[in-house]
Amino acid sequence: MAGKPVLHYFDSRGRMECIRWLLAAAGVEFEEKLIESPEDLDKLKNDGSLMFQQVPMVEIDGMKLVQTRAILNYIATKHNLYGKDMKERVLIDMYTEGTADLNEMIMLLPLCPADQKDAKIALIKDRTKNRYLPVFEKVLKSHGQDYLVGNKLSRADIHLTELLYYVEEVDSSLLANFPLLKALKTRISNLPSVKKFLQPGSQRKPPTDEKKLEEARKIFKF
Ligand SMILES: N[C@@H](CCC(=O)N[C@@H](CS)C(=O)NCC(=O)O)C(=O)O
Predict the structure, then answer these.
(1) Which of 51, 66, 76, 93 could form a disulfide linkage to 82, CB 3.0–4.6 angstroms apart?
(2) Any idea where the GST C-terminal domain is (predicted)?
Protein backbone atom coordinates (compact mmCIF):
# COMPACT_ATOMS: atom_id res chain seq x y z
CA MET A 1 0.00 0.00 0.00
CA ALA A 2 1.29 3.48 -0.87
CA GLY A 3 2.44 5.57 2.12
CA LYS A 4 0.88 8.84 3.15
CA PRO A 5 1.45 11.87 0.93
CA VAL A 6 4.18 14.14 2.30
CA LEU A 7 3.60 17.89 2.02
CA HIS A 8 6.59 20.20 1.82
CA TYR A 9 5.80 23.78 2.71
CA PHE A 10 6.24 26.47 5.29
CA ASP A 11 4.10 26.26 8.47
CA SER A 12 1.33 28.50 7.19
CA ARG A 13 -1.66 28.49 4.87
CA GLY A 14 -0.17 30.07 1.77
CA ARG A 15 -0.53 28.02 -1.41
CA MET A 16 -0.57 24.70 0.48
CA GLU A 17 -3.75 25.17 2.49
CA CYS A 18 -6.12 24.31 -0.37
CA ILE A 19 -4.14 21.07 -0.83
CA ARG A 20 -4.44 20.29 2.88
CA TRP A 21 -8.21 20.93 2.65
CA LEU A 22 -8.67 18.74 -0.41
CA LEU A 23 -6.71 15.81 1.00
CA ALA A 24 -8.47 16.09 4.36
CA ALA A 25 -11.92 16.26 2.73
CA ALA A 26 -11.04 13.21 0.63
CA GLY A 27 -10.24 11.40 3.87
CA VAL A 28 -6.53 11.10 3.05
CA GLU A 29 -4.07 11.25 5.94
CA PHE A 30 -0.90 13.16 5.14
CA GLU A 31 2.43 14.09 6.68
CA GLU A 32 4.06 17.47 6.61
CA LYS A 33 7.74 18.27 6.33
CA LEU A 34 7.82 21.89 7.34
CA ILE A 35 10.34 24.25 5.80
CA GLU A 36 11.69 26.20 8.76
CA SER A 37 14.74 27.99 7.35
CA PRO A 38 16.27 29.18 4.07
CA GLU A 39 18.61 26.18 4.38
CA ASP A 40 15.65 23.75 4.39
CA LEU A 41 14.38 25.34 1.18
CA ASP A 42 17.85 25.35 -0.39
CA LYS A 43 18.23 21.66 0.41
CA LEU A 44 15.05 20.84 -1.51
CA LYS A 45 16.15 23.08 -4.38
CA ASN A 46 19.63 21.57 -4.51
CA ASP A 47 18.57 17.94 -4.37
CA GLY A 48 16.41 18.44 -7.47
CA SER A 49 13.07 17.96 -5.67
CA LEU A 50 11.54 21.21 -6.91
CA MET A 51 10.97 21.37 -10.66
CA PHE A 52 10.67 25.18 -10.67
CA GLN A 53 12.58 25.78 -7.42
CA GLN A 54 9.27 26.48 -5.71
CA VAL A 55 6.93 24.93 -3.18
CA PRO A 56 4.26 23.62 -2.59
CA MET A 57 5.72 20.19 -3.31
CA VAL A 58 3.84 16.99 -2.54
CA GLU A 59 5.38 13.54 -2.53
CA ILE A 60 2.62 11.19 -3.59
CA ASP A 61 2.44 7.84 -5.39
CA GLY A 62 6.19 7.82 -6.00
CA MET A 63 6.21 11.31 -7.55
CA LYS A 64 7.30 14.73 -6.41
CA LEU A 65 4.53 17.01 -7.61
CA VAL A 66 4.79 20.80 -7.84
CA GLN A 67 2.49 23.58 -9.08
CA THR A 68 -0.56 23.97 -6.87
CA ARG A 69 -3.15 23.51 -9.60
CA ALA A 70 -1.47 20.37 -10.96
CA ILE A 71 -1.34 18.90 -7.47
CA LEU A 72 -5.01 19.67 -6.83
CA ASN A 73 -6.01 18.23 -10.21
CA TYR A 74 -4.19 15.00 -9.42
CA ILE A 75 -5.74 14.61 -5.97
CA ALA A 76 -9.23 15.49 -7.23
CA THR A 77 -8.96 12.98 -10.08
CA LYS A 78 -7.57 10.26 -7.85
CA HIS A 79 -10.34 10.69 -5.28
CA ASN A 80 -13.22 11.05 -7.72
CA LEU A 81 -13.90 14.68 -6.88
CA TYR A 82 -13.64 15.98 -10.44
CA GLY A 83 -16.98 15.26 -12.12
CA LYS A 84 -18.16 12.37 -14.26
CA ASP A 85 -17.48 13.82 -17.71
CA MET A 86 -15.87 16.72 -19.58
CA LYS A 87 -18.87 19.00 -19.15
CA GLU A 88 -18.97 18.54 -15.39
CA ARG A 89 -15.22 18.94 -15.25
CA VAL A 90 -15.16 22.24 -17.09
CA LEU A 91 -17.83 23.60 -14.74
CA ILE A 92 -15.80 22.42 -11.77
CA ASP A 93 -12.73 24.10 -13.30
CA MET A 94 -14.57 27.40 -13.76
CA TYR A 95 -15.89 27.36 -10.20
CA THR A 96 -12.47 26.35 -8.89
CA GLU A 97 -10.73 29.19 -10.73
CA GLY A 98 -13.30 31.69 -9.47
CA THR A 99 -12.78 30.60 -5.87
CA ALA A 100 -9.00 30.63 -6.42
CA ASP A 101 -9.11 34.25 -7.63
CA LEU A 102 -10.87 35.50 -4.51
CA ASN A 103 -8.86 33.16 -2.30
CA GLU A 104 -5.64 34.66 -3.69
CA MET A 105 -6.81 38.21 -2.96
CA ILE A 106 -7.46 37.22 0.66
CA MET A 107 -4.25 35.18 0.93
CA LEU A 108 -2.13 38.12 -0.20
CA LEU A 109 -3.81 40.60 2.17
CA PRO A 110 -1.17 40.22 4.92
CA LEU A 111 1.47 41.32 2.38
CA CYS A 112 -0.36 44.53 1.61
CA PRO A 113 1.41 47.73 2.81
CA ALA A 114 -0.36 49.28 5.82
CA ASP A 115 -1.37 52.43 3.93
CA GLN A 116 -3.17 50.36 1.26
CA LYS A 117 -4.78 47.80 3.53
CA ASP A 118 -8.17 49.48 4.05
CA ALA A 119 -8.63 49.94 0.32
CA LYS A 120 -7.68 46.31 -0.32
CA ILE A 121 -10.14 45.06 2.31
CA ALA A 122 -12.87 47.24 0.76
CA LEU A 123 -12.09 45.76 -2.65
CA ILE A 124 -12.19 42.20 -1.30
CA LYS A 125 -15.57 42.84 0.35
CA ASP A 126 -16.94 44.36 -2.83
CA ARG A 127 -15.74 41.48 -5.01
CA THR A 128 -17.05 38.96 -2.47
CA LYS A 129 -20.55 40.45 -2.31
CA ASN A 130 -20.93 41.59 -5.88
CA ARG A 131 -18.86 39.31 -8.05
CA TYR A 132 -18.02 35.90 -6.59
CA LEU A 133 -20.61 34.81 -4.03
CA PRO A 134 -23.63 35.76 -6.18
CA VAL A 135 -22.39 33.35 -8.85
CA PHE A 136 -22.31 30.39 -6.48
CA GLU A 137 -25.59 31.30 -4.78
CA LYS A 138 -27.21 31.44 -8.23
CA VAL A 139 -25.80 28.06 -9.24
CA LEU A 140 -27.20 26.39 -6.12
CA LYS A 141 -30.54 28.12 -6.58
CA SER A 142 -30.75 27.17 -10.27
CA HIS A 143 -30.66 23.41 -9.67
CA GLY A 144 -31.75 23.16 -6.04
CA GLN A 145 -29.21 20.42 -5.33
CA ASP A 146 -26.91 19.94 -2.35
CA TYR A 147 -23.66 20.28 -4.31
CA LEU A 148 -22.45 22.66 -7.00
CA VAL A 149 -22.01 20.12 -9.81
CA GLY A 150 -23.69 16.83 -10.73
CA ASN A 151 -25.60 16.45 -7.44
CA LYS A 152 -22.41 14.98 -6.00
CA LEU A 153 -19.54 16.24 -3.85
CA SER A 154 -16.70 17.63 -5.95
CA ARG A 155 -13.54 19.65 -5.35
CA ALA A 156 -15.55 22.77 -6.23
CA ASP A 157 -17.64 22.36 -3.05
CA ILE A 158 -14.52 21.84 -0.97
CA HIS A 159 -12.62 24.84 -2.40
CA LEU A 160 -15.71 27.02 -1.98
CA THR A 161 -16.25 25.95 1.62
CA GLU A 162 -12.61 26.73 2.43
CA LEU A 163 -13.08 30.13 0.83
CA LEU A 164 -16.26 30.82 2.83
CA TYR A 165 -14.30 30.38 6.05
CA TYR A 166 -11.76 32.96 4.86
CA VAL A 167 -14.49 35.35 3.74
CA GLU A 168 -15.99 35.19 7.23
CA GLU A 169 -12.59 35.93 8.72
CA VAL A 170 -12.49 39.13 6.65
CA ASP A 171 -16.00 40.11 7.77
CA SER A 172 -18.43 37.75 9.47
CA SER A 173 -21.43 39.54 7.93
CA LEU A 174 -20.40 38.86 4.32
CA LEU A 175 -22.45 35.67 4.05
CA ALA A 176 -25.60 37.30 5.40
CA ASN A 177 -27.34 37.57 2.02
CA PHE A 178 -26.30 34.15 0.76
CA PRO A 179 -28.50 31.57 2.52
CA LEU A 180 -27.69 28.72 0.13
CA LEU A 181 -23.97 29.28 0.57
CA LYS A 182 -24.35 29.28 4.33
CA ALA A 183 -26.23 25.98 4.04
CA LEU A 184 -23.53 24.55 1.74
CA LYS A 185 -20.83 25.58 4.21
CA THR A 186 -22.69 23.82 7.03
CA ARG A 187 -23.33 20.72 4.90
CA ILE A 188 -19.72 20.35 3.77
CA SER A 189 -18.41 21.18 7.24
CA ASN A 190 -20.48 18.32 8.63
CA LEU A 191 -18.98 15.69 6.34
CA PRO A 192 -17.04 13.46 8.77
CA SER A 193 -13.69 14.04 7.03
CA VAL A 194 -14.12 17.81 6.95
CA LYS A 195 -15.52 17.91 10.47
CA LYS A 196 -12.34 16.20 11.68
CA PHE A 197 -10.17 18.72 9.80
CA LEU A 198 -12.09 21.60 11.38
CA GLN A 199 -11.39 20.33 14.91
CA PRO A 200 -8.69 22.10 16.93
CA GLY A 201 -5.35 20.27 16.70
CA SER A 202 -5.80 19.21 13.06
CA GLN A 203 -3.31 20.08 10.31
CA ARG A 204 -5.42 23.10 9.32
CA LYS A 205 -3.44 26.32 9.63
CA PRO A 206 -4.51 29.54 11.37
CA PRO A 207 -4.55 32.95 9.65
CA THR A 208 -1.10 34.27 8.79
CA ASP A 209 0.04 36.73 11.47
CA GLU A 210 2.98 39.14 11.52
CA LYS A 211 5.28 36.57 13.10
CA LYS A 212 4.59 33.99 10.39
CA LEU A 213 4.99 36.64 7.73
CA GLU A 214 8.42 37.54 9.07
CA GLU A 215 9.43 33.86 9.06
CA ALA A 216 8.18 33.54 5.48
CA ARG A 217 10.18 36.61 4.45
CA LYS A 218 13.36 35.02 5.82
CA ILE A 219 12.76 31.66 4.17
CA PHE A 220 11.58 32.87 0.77
CA LYS A 221 13.74 36.02 0.77
CA PHE A 222 11.11 38.56 -0.27
N1 LIG B 1 2.70 28.67 -9.61
C2 LIG B 1 3.30 28.14 -8.41
C3 LIG B 1 3.80 29.27 -7.56
C4 LIG B 1 4.56 28.73 -6.36
C5 LIG B 1 5.23 29.81 -5.52
O6 LIG B 1 5.18 31.02 -5.84
N7 LIG B 1 5.84 29.38 -4.42
C8 LIG B 1 6.55 30.25 -3.53
C9 LIG B 1 6.11 30.01 -2.10
S10 LIG B 1 4.39 30.28 -1.91
C11 LIG B 1 8.03 29.87 -3.60
O12 LIG B 1 8.37 28.72 -3.58
N13 LIG B 1 8.90 30.87 -3.67
C14 LIG B 1 10.32 30.65 -3.67
C15 LIG B 1 10.95 31.02 -4.97
O16 LIG B 1 10.24 31.35 -5.93
O17 LIG B 1 12.18 30.97 -5.02
C18 LIG B 1 2.28 27.27 -7.67
O19 LIG B 1 1.09 27.58 -7.74
O20 LIG B 1 2.66 26.30 -7.03
Answers:
(1) 76
(2) 85-208
